[in-house]
Amino acid sequence: MKPKALFNWSSGKDSALALYKILQEDEYEVETLLTSINKEFQRISMHGVHVLLLEQQASLLGIPLTKMELPKEPSMEEYQEIMNRTMAEIQSQGITHSIFGDIFLEDLRQYREKQLNSIGMQAVFPLWKQDTSDLIQEFLKLGFKTIVTCVNGTYLDKSFAGRIIDQQFLDDLPKNVDPCGENGEFHTFTFDGPLFKSPVQFEIGETVKKTYPKPKSKPEDKEEEYIFWFCDLIPK
To answer: Contact, 96 vs 66, CB < 8 A?
Structure first.
């Protein structure tokens, strides 16, 4: 029997490609998708996509969805408590492996492995250390379609939000931006491709600016903000 696994589903391109590879290799039984949700706004954490579109995705992929609802600004203690409760429920289903779409962030991998090892589970990284330029080209050649839902204003301006990733988008990226946005430069929502029974239906809404305070490293530093641009996707 194949080991049972959960797939950590962000709704974006890296998740879609990692899931595609896992299903092609057929070494694990993917029992559920796990996605973190902002409970107050009912949107995917970081990506800003409405939960209704996430549910459409899961339905069209044909894989059950587990939503981990988090408060607007959870403390580390609150986050850990909710995560522990969620993972206990997942483990009760006989799930032993947890699959991620991470590519090259070493500290993030170490954190995930440490957390999972502490409860007797194993982490799996199907895209690990692969060239991100090659990965995004493979993603497009397979026929996946994804739209940019959030951009980090430190790296990209408002015009990149709401664009569908194609070769022109990649050509327009500044040289300091990873083509997969692996450093958090942008986030996406994948709405079509070889895994989907049919495309996810949505309309493109307005793009809004949100700011978050930067932590001060020194008392004399001036107050600064992180700027993010979110393109709203409206479920049909």
So the answer is: no
CB atoms within 10 A of CB 215: 6
In terms of domains, do 106 and 146 share one? Answer: no
Pick the last residue of a domain from 124, 143, 161.
124
| Residue that is last in its domain, among 97, 124, 151 | 124
Q: Could you tell me which of 43, 71, 35 has the C-alpha nearest to residue 233?
A: 43
Q: How confident is the prediction along the chain (236 residues), in pLDDT tens digits per residue? A: 999 999 999 999 999 999 999 999 999 999 999 999 999 999 998 889 999 999 999 999 999 999 999 998 889 899 999 999 999 999 999 999 999 999 999 999 999 999 999 999 999 999 999 999 999 999 999 999 999 999 999 999 999 999 999 999 999 999 999 999 999 999 999 999 999 999 999 999 999 999 988 766 545 445 578 999 999 999 99
Which residue's structure tokens are 């800003």?
A: 48
Residue type, 130: Q
pTM of the model: 0.93
Domain span at 8: 4-124
Say yes or no: 92 and 141 in one domain: no
213: burial class by Cβ within 10 Å (0-12, 13-18, 19+)?
exposed
Please choose, from the candidates 88, 89, 95, 66, the residue with its C-alpha nearest in 3D space to the C-alpha of residue 3.
95
Q: What is the CATH number of the domain that holds 8?
A: 3.40.50.620
Q: Which residues of 32-53 are buried (b: 16+ CB within 10 A; e: fewer)?
A: bbbbbbbbeeebbbbbbbbbbb
